[in-house]
Specification:
The complex is a heterodimer of chains A (248) and B (273). With 248 residues, chain A is of the alpha/beta class. Helices cover 21% and strands 34% of the residues of chain A. Chain B has 273 residues and is α/β, with parallel strands linked by helices. The chains are: A alpha/beta (248), B alpha/beta (273). The interface between A and B is medium-sized, with 21 and 22 residues.
Chain lengths: 248, 273
Amino acid sequence: MQSGKSAAQTVATVKPLQIRGRTFTAIALHLSGRPDRAFFEALEARLNQTPLFFDNAPLVIDLEQAQGLDGPQDLVHLAAELRRRKLSVFGIQSGTPTQARAAAEAGLISLPGGRDAALERVSRQGSRPEPAPAAAAKEPANRMVTQPVRSGQTVFADRGDLVVVGSVSSGAEVIAAGNIHIYGRLRGRALAGVNGDASARIFCHALDAELLAIAGLYRTSENLGPDTPRHHVQVYLEGEVLRIEALA
Amino acid sequence: MSKVIVVTSGKGGVGKTTSSAAIGAGLAMRGHKTVVIDFDVGLRNLDMIMGCERRVVFDFINVIQGDAKLKQALIKDRRLENLYVLPTSQTRDKDALTKEGVKAVLDELRQEFDYIVCDSPAGIERGAHLAMYYADEAVVVTNPEVSSVRDSDRVLGLLNSKSALAEKGDGSAVKAQLLLTRFDQNRSASGDMMSVEDVLEILAIPLLGIIPESTSVLKASNEGTPVSLDEKSPAGKAYMDAVGRLVGEQIEMRATPGEQRRGFFQRLLGRTA
């Protein structure tokens, strides 16, 4: 029994550790001016509308409209007040350099510009000294897959382009730091430029994707729209917009 | 050289056990010494489908745990000279299966049998994983229906990555073939059901056979007779054709087995026929 289990584990464990890009969802709180009594009352009212919905929700404070709020004490106070209301505040965004320093002193990370959706997403893990320098120093390594990528499989090209000669099934995931080329039908999820490369593109013979993402900006099959080209397409970022275009 | 063939699907209720029994019986009828193993520990069904449930004394789990010899657990079929069944336990669960135990039993069976058919449980957990782990070939049973196709696709991914052959890492792979069951040509033509082309396009593996939806399948199951023994049934004939292809014969794919109707399937499968 025991030996059987450990054997299965040995088989499943390929590397002692893995580092993967990951996208998280967080909520963004837009401040306009200093948080005063009226602000907290409005906040309480909002939280009371859906009592459990925001419990322990990861939260980012958006300071775009609150230029004046730049003292560490202000942010410490604000963070404490938010945490008291069961909001897990962990960072700020759209802050000035002064605000970023104040945030650091208050134990909050400063995030590079996320984008508002219905909920705010955070595509990168802040400015922590992650293994990025080591990875950047290495040669890019492209990856080629010559079999269909089946439902439930994930293929990850962590340092370069990914080429799939075959189809990507519904429920499968192909992820690359660089471009993704699929010589077949894309039915699953494709995430290109996961380390933040906004110039990465996705190419496929036939598009039937569940999700397309470049540098953290994504579209799902639901909001692709009926006029989206479906054959021989490329997907790329134009500013903040994910474009899908038929190849000429 | 003996072959281990796993009959698997991911999804439940698509006809794995029925197909295992029919394929096992078909191989035996063709003169190959065949054993069918039930890997669905805790939900023992194969013995009923094969009509030997009253003769089970020792089972697969007893053999794995060393409580019984393999010879004691093997049940010889009363109808077919070359057919044996290795039933599983109804009282234990899938944790009773171990990789080493399964390997030891399969190695011993390989000495004696031409074909070892492993009837996989549904799902992708321990039972299903061990049923496919030592397989040389796989018969992926799929209904022409989206959830069944997706689950089969998942199973094909596991066959390509989590089987003993795949883990050798020398490019060898489990040879997987598709058995499309419960197929209704009229409903497929009217668009209610997925077409054969649609399923093949998604799964991208060779087609072993198309088993038509047939009342004879349920009847045969309840009687404890593998459906391939029913010569009059279209499903039985389709299974015999599939068995022929499984052993490497070139057999034309027929919409209604036994009838020489030209059309859809000939066009579709003209290249293999």
